[in-house]
Amino acid sequence: MASAGRVVLVTGVSRDLGRRFARAAAAHPNVERVIGVDVVPPRGDIGGMSFVRADIRNPVIAKVIAKEDVDTVVHMSIISTPGSTGGRSTMKELNVIGTMQLLAACQKAATVRHLVVKSTAHVYGASNRDPAMFTETSETRRAGGGYAKDVAEIEGYVRGFARRRPDVCVTTLRCTNVIGPKVESPMASYLRLPLIPRRIGFDPRLQFLHESDLYAALAHAVRSEISGTFNVAGAGVMPLSQVVRRLQRPTLPVPSFGLGLLRPAHVAPVSPELRALLTFGRGIDTTRTREVLGFEPAYTTAGALDDFAAGLVPTGGRIDSLLAAVEERLPSNRGVEHQLHAIGQAAGEDHEHG
Amino acid sequence: MGDAEIIPIGTRGRPGRGTGRAPSAAARALAKPKKPVEKSPSAVPEVTSGESSGHDDPVVPTEVVAPAETVTTQGPAYSQDRGPLKGIPLADWQAALDVAAREVFGEDWEPQLAGFLAFLRRRVTGDYAVDEFGFDAELTQRFFVSLLRPIAQKWFRIEVRGLENIPADGGALVVSNHSGTLPIDGLMTMVTLHDHAARSLRPLGADLVFKLPFIGSLARKGGVTLACNEDAERLLRSGELVGVWPEGFKGIGKPYSERYKLQRFGRGGFVSAALRTGVPIVPLSVVGAEEIYPLVGNVPALAKVLGVPYLPVTPFFPLLGPLGLIPLPSKWLMEFGEPVRTDEYDASAADDPMLVFNVTDQVRETIQQTLYSLLMQRQSVFH
Fold this sequence. Notes:
The complex is a heterodimer of chains A (354) and B (383). Chain A has 354 residues and is an alpha/beta fold. Chain A has helices at residues 16-26, 60-68, 88-108, 146-164, 186-191, 211-224, 240-247, 256-260, 272-280, 287-293, 301-310, 318-328, 331-334, 341-353; strands at residues 6-11, 31-38, 50-53, 72-75, 114-120, 169-175, 177-179, 196-199, 205-206, 208-210, 228-232, 238-239, 251-254.
């Protein structure tokens, strides 16, 4: 724990996750100041955070760090889709060059003693040759192009920084897909589609992390100052078939190129990495996070999904209402044949199981 | 006619433009094919009279008004009133369903149906749990095993020996020979262990399995996971019964002439997994699977194009089409051998290649010898 109030610099505060985390950090009693950095100002309440409009791709960021005596840097500006920023090349520049500049600035600044990087589980890739659960020591070189490749490169630079500045504690959190009622992410917008397209014949295993657990994990990492790489995900694994049933959403089986059409058609920003995930699935092992970092998400995968589903209007679920109607019409439920008392008990037990 | 002049609105079902007088030539042409109805003129007014004006009668304009009076008394007839299900009361349907349910589920059909409905609703609403490997225990036990059980018991008449060698709980590695062109022997081992030893086998499969649509997702739900050290050790550490077929495609896709000759046992990865976790290795010898699809030929060029390790030709397969996919009803014998203990070695033993090779050979030899003795005991292939 820091002796006096800490000065935290958060990158990527223009996006919701970054802004909310920065706001929560600013409200913490042990934090003296929070400086949010991004190229565009955040929309929405920034609370006690002070915003500095700076591009982490140029050396101005070093001046910000030096001037404000920043001791903790939380890097959250790694973006997964080009979105409004432009094309793939802009995205790569923001991700990789931005990180390099930020790390260069941190290396020069003597005050910095803790770096937290929000990475992603996409760095493991997703294929039919993967083990069921990835641990932090699993190799990440198999990651394909785009976002996953960016993240693999970024993690490489972060490791290089950790070697050059051994006095700085470096924590990398590989988070799985973050969902929550207010989260705007490729996965969340995919699951919000009224009719969910699925790759025909595949049932990927998915894990989710609740939005509030992401903030908690970052805050825990800042507080505990334990260096290393950690997988962060809600407990449990859920196949996509079960996810759509819980969301009460109808699905549309599509061939492999069907998922690839979602982005050009502006239906949902499904990147190639997400497409691979939605075909082969992935699981990450969080044992090390629990035992070494000492963090456990409050929401399980199922719990996070339930909270996400609470804010959605179901578009399916007709089969269940049909079955419920049939169940109601069973003679024991209608009270016509009440000679078998045991029937009701048996049915009641089944309900309890369900 | 009444004193007021009735000016018809619309055509009252007749083809035409609504003048009530002469339909257009095109409308007359459309109406022509309906003529044959006229051969029983007495029946026409009885059937809904609104419809009767459907046939072509341009010469008598007064008649256009006459049916309009009867229409008001009878009301129009809609197509849903004439549906085939009209007139059967709901109670009759309920009674019919009651009888049908009694036929299907027996006298105590109600609790059975209620239980089944509860199960269905749980599945439909996603209220069940799978483990981190994607294994759906409920689906496997209630569906897959029940589906495969008759095949194991009635078709292949599997005879099981050495069940006492399967530990009642805790991790163990079942190592088996592989044969039969399609991995039916794996499925049968799963069913056998479920029924006779009350344990769920967690097979390790090739990466090809998870690349195939439908098969890959079904395999995951049935408990299969990728044959790699991480998954094997993870399962064994959590006390599961893991099944492995170290011959792989070399064993399952070997020609019929080489039946019951064990192929190379991979690189011994399964032994190092067992050594690291200290679980016993149970050798399993399966006789009978070689004969279900006697592989007499292979089309390597086409297999390469399709991305599969071999494309089998059996005496029946391409010849009889899908009928050729029915396995021959050979008689199966399964013998679980005495477990090879690995807990007396320390963990570093897994990094000793010589020891790994020795244990691999020991397991392979045991299976091969058991195969020979089982073959001697079997009277004939189908008996």
